[in-house]
Amino acid sequence: MAGRSIGKGTVLIIILGIVSLFADFVYEGARSIIPQYLTTLGGSVFLLGVVLGVSEFAGYAFRLVSGKIADRTRGYWAIMFLGYAINLFAVPLLALSGNYITAAILVFLERFGKGTRAPSKDYVISTAASKGGVGRAFAISAGLDQVGAIVGPISVALILLYKGTYRTAFAYLAIPGAIAMIVLLAAYMYHSKSRIRRQVPPKTDLMSSRRFLLYSIAIAVSAAGLYQVAFVLYGAQGQIDIALIPVIFLVAMIGEGLFGFVFGLLYDRIGRNLVYSGLLLSLFVPLLLLGGSPVYMFLAALVFGAVTGIQDTVMRAVVGTTVHPKQRGYAYGIFNAFYGFGLLVSSVAIGYLYHSIANIVAYVFIIQAVAFVMLTVSFRKSV
């Protein structure tokens, strides 16, 4: 029985990973050109930072609400369907946006949709995972969605290479979006038939103390010191061919997929101390940009991808292995709300400091040092 249950859970995780594959095809393909697209509509680098920062924060902060609703209603699948629908179809509508405000609203809705469905998806993955295999479950999910995150920017780059426009690329992304919704329906039908059992609750419940909140705040502080790839894409304009700019984003997605998968597997063996690697790697993103040439832009994007890969697997797995399943949706909501606020701070701060890379490097080092101290304190308080 246990073997069967584990097998069914793994199959569900893989099917949901395929949903993520096509979903990432859509929004990571779009994110590879959104900074450039908003620029063509008349936005400055600071305004770009504000739009992306507010959108990311709203998307992450709403996970607190959607996670709480999911835990109270147990309507994880319904919330996933709603979130994916908003998340995926806001992107093709960018092809119809005629001004900066409309485009900014659609970028906001795309992130909002992801924020709606993310806690429910994390809950389903973590509860479908075998005992002691939460890191592996998130590694499988991250590995599959990064396939889409790689194919998406490649497809967009090819469209631009063959004289397509940004609008053409956004419209094309409606196809993988529709496929993602179909596969999500298949995942729901499989889950309903297989009746996958929930796993035994973990030994520790951090929601009853300050430890979980302190950990979430430490990760948020680290996110506030992350030089995001959108600014790398912005800086590449005028330095490399327009069709090659999405390739920079592609490199970031390769780094995210590779490091996310590897570190997700390592988490089940090494544990939470792997989180420190994300803080360390964050320091190298702005440092590499000091090199000045396009080559360093690609390297900075790769390191950025490594950091987000660790965030998507290791940092989330810590929550999945320390919080009671009945509170896990809400816990992921809290965690992501803090994390989103960190990204908002990062977007605004980097946008403001953009023209002084030396100041950015100093800022990142200070912020990551603070995050390191807070993370260490939160781990020492853990039992």
Overview of this structure, please?
- This protein is an all-alpha fold and 383 residues long.
- It has a single domain (2-380), classed as MFS general substrate transporter like domains (Growth Hormone, Chain: A), CATH 1.20.1250.20.
- It is built from 16 helices and no strands.
- The protein has helices at 2-31, 34-40, 45-73, 76-89, 100-128, 134-161, 166-172, 174-194, 211-224, 229-236, 245-270, 275-282, 284-289, 294-320, 325-353, 357-380.
- Helix 10 (229-236) packs antiparallel against helix 11.
CATH homology superfamily: MFS general substrate transporter like domains
Provide the domain count: 1
Query: What best-fitting shape do the alpha-carbon axes yield?
Result: globular
From the 3D structure, determine the CATH topology.
Growth Hormone, Chain: A
What is the annotated CATH architecture?
Up-down Bundle
* Unreliable runs: 1-5, 199-208
Cα-atom radius of gyration? 20 Å
- N-to-C order of helices and strands: HHHHHHHHHHHHHHHH
User: What's the count of strands?
Assistant: 0
Q: Mean of residue pLDDT?
A: 83
Q: Biggest sheet, open or closed, and with what strands and sense?
A: none
Query: What share of residues is helical?
Result: over 70%
Count of DSSP-assigned helices: 16
Distance between the first and last residues' Cα: 32 Å
Helix and strand content put the structural class at mainly alpha
Short key terms for the protein model shown above:
383 residues, mainly alpha, Growth Hormone, Chain: A, 16 helices, 80% helix, disordered N terminus
Summarize the structure.
Helix content is 80%, strand content 0%. By secondary structure, it is mainly α.
